[in-house]
Design goal:
Shape: globular
Number of helices: 11
Bound molecules: 3-methyl-2-oxobutanoic acid
Helix content: 40-55%
Order of helices and strands: HEHEHHEHEHEHHEHEEHH
């Protein structure tokens, strides 16, 4: 997969699958699967570091996780998230953040919103770095949005989202994540854009879907929004394995003669 394949897949109506990964071992598993590409999302602040939002993610954290993912998945198309405010403090600071993610091994960067970031997005694109947009529920703005709420529910809000998507496309983005919008909005925006939309809680008419790996593997006990589908019960499977190990240790069944020197 390379950046040009996103548009090709949309044209051929082949849905794009994306999952998050933040570390080397899970990236290697994702790369060995049929999933098309990896997002090193700033959701790692929550899933990997235990914070309550994505706001504490820093460029140092993001770059370290991008580098780990790249080592585990040398051939995957990897998108790295620009963290909170890293692209809102002027061009030079934004470009330092982009440089950090790209030199850590990303193939592209993702950033949230568009208003006030137009010049920076253009400059990143003109610097040869593919940019993925992110609209709808943009978690870095959770305080401004008043919580994790479905966006674009009124006609005027829907029109603004469409306008912003078209702006991102005009600025040269190669794709846009649409998060938590009504499926009709996801459909309308996907139809109006030539670049692909990657939905999360945005309905099945988006050109692709993205999920947080821990959510789809059932490794996130506290979080069960409507848009997540669990493909396995990861917590109970892992707990079962750990309990079996503990029982074997306690009963002196582990290690066996074959596992000893
Ligand atoms: O940070 C992240 O994981 C994301 C996805 C939820 C799209 O931005």
């Amino acid at each position: 997969m390379n950046v040009l394949d996103f548009a090709k897949m949309k044209k051929k109506q082949i849905p794009i699958s994306m999952v998050t990964s933040y570390d080397s071992w899970s990236a290697a598993i994702v790369e060995s699967s049929d999933v098309d590409c990896i997002l090193v999302g700033d959701s790692l602040a929550m899933t990997m570091h235990g914070f309550g939002s994505t706001i504490p993610a820093t460029i140092e954290m993001m770059s370290m996780h991008v580098a780990a993912v790249r080592r585990g998945a040398p051939n995957a198309f990897v998108v790295g998230d620009l963290p909170f405010l890293s692209y809102r403090k002027g061009l030079a600071t934004a470009m330092d953040a982009v440089q950090s993610l790209m030199q850590a091994g990303a193939n592209a960067v993702k950033l949230e919103g568009v208003k006030g970031s137009e010049e920076i997005i253009s400059h990143i694109v003109d610097s040869g770095v593919p940019v993925m947009g992110h609209l709808g529920l943009i978690p870095q703005s959770v305080n401004g949005l008043g919580g994790y709420k479905v966006q674009g529910k009124t006609q005027s809000k829907e029109d603004i989202l469409l306008e912003e998507s078209l702006t991102l496309q005009k600025l040269g983005c190669f794709a846009v994540v649409l998060e938590c919008v009504p499926s009709a909005v996801g459909k309308r925006i996907s139809q109006e854009l030539t670049m692909p939309t990657i939905g999360i809680g945005a309905g099945c008419d988006c050109d692709g879907q993205v999920l947080v790996l821990q959510d789809l593997l059932g490794l996130n006990s506290d979080f069960k929004p409507k848009f997540v589908r669990k493909y396995m019960e990861g917590i109970s499977l892992i707990k079962e394995a750990l309990d079996s190990y503990d029982a074997d240790v306690k009963a002196k069944r582990f290690p066996s003669a074959e596992e000893e020197f």
